[in-house]
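Example 325, ligand (2R)-2,3-dihydroxypropanoic acid.
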Amino acid sequence: MTKPRVFVTRILPDRGLQKVLAQTDATVWQEELPPPRAVLLDWARQADGLLTLLTDKIDAELLDAAPHLKVVANFAVGFDNFDVPAATQRRVLMTNTPGVLTDTTADLAFTLLMACARRIVEGHTYAKNGHWRTWGPMLLMGQDIHGATLGVAGIGRIGLAMARRARGFGMRILYHDAFRSEVAEQELGAVAVSKAELLAQSDFVSLHVPLTPETYHYIDAAALRTMKPNAILINTARGPVVDTLALYEALKAQQIFAAGLDVTDPEPLPAEHPLYTLDNALVVPHIASASFETRSRMAEMAADNLLAGLAGQLPPNCLNPEALR
Ligand code: DGY
């Protein structure tokens, strides 16, 4: 029996990749950068399945070029690179990797929160560059975390995990979402508020909303103007949820205290971007889920989703079960 043809758009952790290699006729893109669009389209023409990253756009044009395609498995929980309705129309299954990266992502969000509040990177740079001459009564003062108010925008899995960490630090928790979270309210004493209240009252605002047309520039110049001067913004969601230039202006004018960003717009943020000139902007390169164990589990999950879809079964983490042929 011939094995299904698969294109894997990047080298993945072995635990997932070996499963795919064992059970399919797979080609793995070997470069660090994503395959160019023309290469992806070319593979789409031949493939029964694709294992993709968030940098690979799977839209109507690509789906139309893919007569044999049964399943596209994303190696990510976010799927704003997918046109799910277009795939459903063409009976192509789409999957993601929810759950396995929740705590690892929340760990990084809380790391950014603490690093910004206590100016960790600034302190390291200061010491390393030979500026540390004595104990300074006013040196590198930051914001307290204990007793402060955390505003969680989007209380899904990762938002809730962030709130749990904050609770452990004795923080008060506000959240804003279209839905009430009984768990957040009962377990953590979190209070549901409007977006305006969240921005006006929080010492830390952490973004955990998916990127949709509604959440594009959720934090814009107007939103930034309503935040507290001591406020710290954390974004581990998606870059375009924040208006980057408005954030730059707000940080430069010290309208808010700092921002910690795992995701940016554009992404990658080019080295010459003005945000890097600011001491109160901390940027890391979209690594929130990047622990050895979590990336391995994501690879395994994406592989299982892909293989189920290729076998004509409903993948465990299917975004459009109605597309099952
Ligand atoms: C995701 O999974 O959506 C993250 O952004 C990367 O792990």
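Summary: Residues 5-99+292-323 form a domain with the Rossmann fold fold (CATH 3.40.50.720).
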